[in-house]
Each structure stands twice: as C-alpha cells, then as structure tokens.
Amino acid sequence: MHLLQAVFLALLAASVSAQYPSRPKPANPKIPEVDQRCMDCLCQASSDCDETIKCHNAGGNSYFCGPYVISWAYWHDGGRPGDKGRAHDFENCLTNKTCAEEAVRGYMRKYGQDCDSNGVIDCQDFARIHKLGFGQCGGDAILDTDYWQKFEVCYIAPFQPYDDYGEGGIQARSGQHPPYE
C-alpha cells in the first residue's frame, strides 16, 4: 500500500509542477567597470585626491584611509587587494592610490546599482555608493553635500585641472561648462 501512495504522490507532484512552470530569474543589470575619469572624480570629491592622507579615526568606529577615504569593511568587500595576511595590509593598500582604486572597483562590481533610478548604472551611482554605501545610496540628501558638489564639478568639467579646490574654487568653477550629453 505504501508503494501505491508514493507513486500517486509523485504523479500528483509532477502534474502540479507542470501547471506552474518555474519563472526565469530577472536578469541582473550589467554593472560597468568604473573608468578612470570616474575614479579621479571620486578621489577628488573624497579628499581633494590628497595622496598624503594616512589612516585616521573619524570618531566612534569610523577608521578611514587614503585619498579615497575608505574603511576596512569597504576594502574587505572590495576584494581585499594587497592582502598578504599581515596586520596592516589594508592600510598599506588604501594609502596607495592604485591599490585603493582596485578596492573601489571591486566594491562597485559587487554592489553597483542604479541608485538614482534613472535606468542606468553610471558614475553618479558609483559616487553615491562610494560615499553612502550600497544600502543607502538612493536618497537625495547627498546632493547638498560638499562631497557631491566637488564630484559634480569634477565630472562635468573633466578637461579642466581639478587639483586646486581651495577656498571658493568650486564656486568660481561651477557652471563654467555645460554638462556632458
């Protein structure tokens, strides 16, 4: 009797699954690689791309390193470039611009998304993710920050030198060039 019940249940399961075909998973949007122009503007917005910045405690559990102002967790999620198993490998990497860029690119490959809901994943999304993290990149509060203003001036006017953001430098250069189309 048990064999007959097992056969019946198998036939029943097969007929039910035939009525409800599995749905294909939606395709994940392709996350583009962060190009060098975007990297340069992320660096500029983060620290004026000051390659002399070492690691520093910003209060609480906030410990950031290098010109991209990156935390240990960000570096770890970005693939741990430069990790040789030594205690300060993350600090050595993040204070080296080239190594820090590997971490940024790895982080964006992992967490890149359309933060501003414009239908594309681009440098503006990467700038939001870099500053706010992947889980909080959708808000507009970032648009009123010095970070965002520096990023936009750099990204909109890429052929102008952007290594001199002294007092009033952003205001003097804002609006000089039309946005890219």
TrEMBL record:
Catalytic activity entry: Hydrolysis of (1->4)-beta-linkages between N-acetylmuramic acid and N-acetyl-D-glucosamine residues in a peptidoglycan and between N-acetyl-D-glucosamine residues in chitodextrins
Q: According to the UniProt record, what class of enzyme is this?
A: hydrolase
List, alphabetically, the PROSITE patterns matched: EF_HAND_1, LYSOZYME_I
| GO MF assignments | lysozyme activity
Q: Which InterPro entries match?
A: EF_Hand_1_Ca_BS, Invert_lysozyme, Lysozyme-like_dom_sf
Give the E.C. number(s). 3.2.1.17
GO annotation (BP), single: killing of cells of another organism
Look up the signal peptide feature and give its range: 1-18
Q: Which domain of life is it from?
A: Eukaryota
Q: List the disulfide bonds.
A: 38-123, 43-49, 55-65, 93-99
What UniProt keywords apply to this chain's record, in alphabetical order?
Antibiotic, Antimicrobial, Bacteriolytic enzyme, Disulfide bond, Glycosidase, Hydrolase, Signal
Instruction: Determine if Hydrolase is one of this entry's keywords.
Output: yes
Q: What is this protein called?
A: lysozyme
